[in-house]
Design a protein that fits this description.
It contains 13 helices and 18 strands. With 408 residues, it is an alpha/beta fold. The strands form four sheets. Strands 6-5-14-15-16-13-17 form a seven-stranded mixed sheet. The chain has a five-stranded parallel sheet with strand order 8-2-1-12-18. It binds flavin-adenine dinucleotide.
Length: 408
């Protein structure tokens, strides 16, 4: 069977690698000309995503990925704080966690290596249709076409393929824009280094302002101790942070800024909302070239609302179907699991329609699970942007912080 894939992001590359490995003919097309030209935070891969990857990529690629990943089990439990930096509570103990955080660039590069010559860069897909013989095909900007037995749209949140199948957009803005950046832990003052610690944290303040600081250390906390295999772009303890604000005209204005101007404007925005100066050090000391905006898009959280089309010889996976904000760290893992599951169904079913029907049914549930977890955090943040929510945040957080201090 020949399969063509629109989009060589996380899901499309995972699928391409797995199809090659299982003996199918595949071609993956991405509009990017360089797989390393991808921004964003780190990607969290849980045990289910790692198991899927073990099926999709050669063992050597998986070992390189683990040698380049930061193991969650080696860091302290996550912290929850308010805008003054007060501790409100901790997340679960991570000692038994199999999850790994990996640079988005590293993950994409390793997956691209596994796809090898079947990845075609600089190819912009403009549409999908069936030719006169009824064969599905991709259409490209230069007028070229690529026909196959099965077309898969792995072209992300603004998918051309899923839009064609659904007859319209499959997701909408989630109401929050994220701004990511990276800060070396060594660049922080000793006090702030100690306060943040080797842990990730989420701080939520009034008026929908939130700050996530993800701790990544692929060297000190390597998931696999094999320095010769390491391919991480992060080379020392680093906080990869995500500033989050509700979509308002003021946030839209921030999105137009770049580099140091964007970093300084983010700091001003937090100060305006009453954040304590020390909580902002992680942003103030960031590498200014790393600061960039990401609008969060979200598909519906109900499984029945996902992939609302009849199964056939054109399908889609990942963010194209279940665009997931990064607030639960599950979007990329769900896309990888979609890829593994599609191959399982193709290899087991007796007809293509049976395979795609089974695959899409399971994908709806996978997507809904990731979306429900991510939107819980989005709704919590947005709830502080109402007059009642803002007042409750001001009143309740000092009490919660005091209770946490007493418990300790
Ligand atoms: C820039 C960026 C940064 C992100 N950062 C994070 C993060 O740090 N943490 C996190 O949890 N999630 C992040 N996400 C979301 C997360 O990466 C996705 O949930 C996950 O990658 C889903 O995989 P996917 O393959 O469905 O989509 P993507 O990984 O978004 O891949 C889609 C691919 O399709 C290609 N494409 C789109 N349209 C076309 C077209 N018309 N023709 C050809 N190619 C096309 C794109 O170039 C892209 O490579 C980010 C997404 C993006 C786009």
């Amino acid at each position: 069977m020949r399969i063509v894939v629109a989009g060589g992001g996380i899901g499309g590359l995972a699928l391409g690698a797995g199809l090659r490995r299982s003996g199918h003919r595949v071609a993956v097309f991405d509009r990017d000309t360089d797989v390393t030209a991808t921004g964003g935070y780190h990607i969290t891969l849980d045990d289910r995503a790692l198991r899927a990857l073990a099926d999709l990529v050669p063992q050597h690629t998986l070992r390189r990925l683990l040698a380049s990943g930061s193991a969650l089990r080696l860091r302290e439990p996550d912290a929850f704080r308010d805008h003054r930096g007060r501790l409100l509570g901790h997340g679960p103990d991570l000692a038994g966690s199999a999850s790994v955080d990996v640079d988005r660039v590293t993950l994409r590069t390793l997956l691209a290596d596994a796809v090898g010559p079947d990845l075609h860069l600089g190819r912009h897909v403009t549409g999908v249709d069936h030719d006169r013989a009824g064969t599905p095909r991709l259409l490209f900007t230069d007028g070229a076409t690529e026909s196959a037995d099965l077309v898969v749209g792995a072209d992300g949140a603004h998918s051309t393929i899923a839009r064609h199948l659904a007859g319209g957009p499959t997701n909408h803005p989630a109401g929050i824009t994220g701004f990511s950046g990276r800060t070396h832990r060594a660049d922080l003052t000793p006090t702030e280094r100690h306060r943040l610690g080797p842990r990730s944290a989420l701080a939520v303040g009034p008026r929908g302002a939130a700050l996530y600081t993800g701790f990544l250390d692929p060297v000190g906390n390597a998931a696999l101790d094999a320095p010769d295999l390491r391919a991480s772009t992060t080379t020392g303890p680093t906080y990869i942070w995500g500033a989050m604000f509700p979509d308002t005209p003021a946030t839209a204005a921030l999105r137009k800024l770049r580099g140091p101007a964007l970093r300084d404007a983010l700091l001003e925005r937090y100060r305006h909302h009453g954040w304590a100066e020390h909580t902002l050090e992680v942003i103030a000391r960031a590498d200014p070239t790393s600061v960039a905006a990401f609008r969060f898009n979200a598909a519906p959280t109900r499984a029945t609302d996902l992939a609302p089309w009849q199964a056939g010889d054109i399908t889609a996976l990942g963010d194209a179907v279940h665009a997931t904000p990064p607030t639960a760290g599950m979007g990329a893992g769900a896309a990888i699991r979609d890829a593994a599951d599609l191959i399982t169904h193709l290899d087991r079913a007796t007809t293509l329609t049976e395979a795609i029907t089974g695959f899409e049914a399971a994908m709806r549930h996978r997507g809904a699970e990731a979306l429900t977890a991510a939107m819980r955090v989005v709704r919590l943040i947005l709830a502080t942007n109402t007059p009642l929510g803002a007042a409750a945040t001001h009143l309740a957080t000092p009490l919660l912080a005091a209770a946490t201090r007493l418990r300790r």
